[in-house]
């Protein structure tokens, strides 16, 4: 065809080249502006000047395909420092766009801006984005929906509709004031006043009958619900009255489908479920309320609702009000239901779990109580028995730097910002879930990271402690997905528990619910250079220091090397 002088043939040839190249590079780049600003939001009878993105609560939903690039310009027009984290995005080589403040960047100051650029690589399903600075994420969050590449399909029948349901937590106060007060007094922060679904508490709360999300459905349809726990401090049960849910994905990885009537999500976790409208046409409550595993601790025991409404549901006769059908929720402390749910997850098929382990790590995770420092005013020691709440991993209570981000200090070799001596094991072994001696209740504050070479394999036992109280901790690792090989109660015992590891089809997640008074075992390959925070996603616990970071060195060549920092990276 090119051996011709006919100009039409040339034209056709170039057109066909164009077509080929455009079908090979159908990955798109999505540009967004996020303006972080105070916006009046009225909930529970009262209006607050709420920090939002683009005046929306929750913020905008981002919809992309696997392989696409996101370019999000964040402008801070609020009075607080802010950063945005793209929860669950692997950020391969783009750690500068991960977002946790003082870990991968300094905060965007009021009046400042920063553009996050990153590409979605090999992830499909539901993730989300949220502020990663103080407690701003109470209201600064939104969904990130990743569909298969164009031309690819879901590994399940195409749902008729898709609905993202973000579960949130609302304070009838400024959340920043709530955490500041707790930090000042050393006491536990006030619990929230409501949970929300897409920002709406639902009609079981005062002044909220109009603030109820309606999810329409046609009889016989199968729809996809993308459920995200965006609550700050509470694990949540989720149910739809009279309907079964088929779990098909979690944390932007597909899972072997299984059917359940109830979900439990820790903050940070997402669960994609199919729901078939196979009940009589009516209105059914979608409800979420607390899974509270910590004994005796105060918690928000309210229930948020939305309404699944069949389009053919008979209209209630004038003047009558037919309440939607309410699901029976599990008891607040129903750990048996949680265990049955979390142990149902499998990868869709056999996966290659790393079997040669370079780092065999054991981290305790839990709370602590600091004695009141000598001379301190009693008003600053209002934790139990005149103490201050704290939390730690392996007895280190994590302290964020304030002059440089960890990633910048690492990349530029700035000394004195962190040390690389985060311990592989707890400094003292004890009966972690028993009656822990008071001498072990006070961790050491520090900014310690654990160093990994590129490509090394890690097995990590996350062991909950019962210091002060045992509770379920949603442990989230930035920059990675990990396989969850097993979980159990009591102290992890390698000779007894190693046999229980699922090395065939364990689920791939970015947040593990470590059972109350128990343990989880995860594995991952350190194939993403950078500094990656790992923390409890109950924000009250991260505030108290339940965090650490992995420092993953560059490997060989460009593809194993962190990209250079963007020009507009905020400095401290
Ligand atoms: Cu979704 Cu470090 O968090």
Automatic annotation (TrEMBL):
Its cofactor is Cu cation. InterPro entries: Cu-oxidase-like_N, Cu-oxidase_2nd, Cu-oxidase_C, Cu-oxidase_fam, Cu_oxidase_CS, Cu_oxidase_Cu_BS, Cupredoxin, CuRO_1_LCC. One of its GO terms (cellular component) is apoplast. One of its GO terms (molecular function) is hydroquinone:oxygen oxidoreductase activity. Keywords: Apoplast, Copper, Glycoprotein, Lignin degradation, Metal-binding, Oxidoreductase, Repeat, Secreted, Signal. It catalyses: 4 hydroquinone + O2 = 4 benzosemiquinone + 2 H2O. Residues 36-150, 162-312, 421-554 form the Plastocyanin-like domain. One of its GO terms (biological process) is lignin catabolic process. It is found in: Secreted, Extracellular space, Apoplast. Binds 4 Cu cations per monomer. It is an enzyme of class 1 (oxidoreductase). Residues 1-27 form the signal peptide. Its EC number is 1.10.3.2. Belongs to the multicopper oxidase family. Lignin degradation and detoxification of lignin-derived products. This is Laccase.
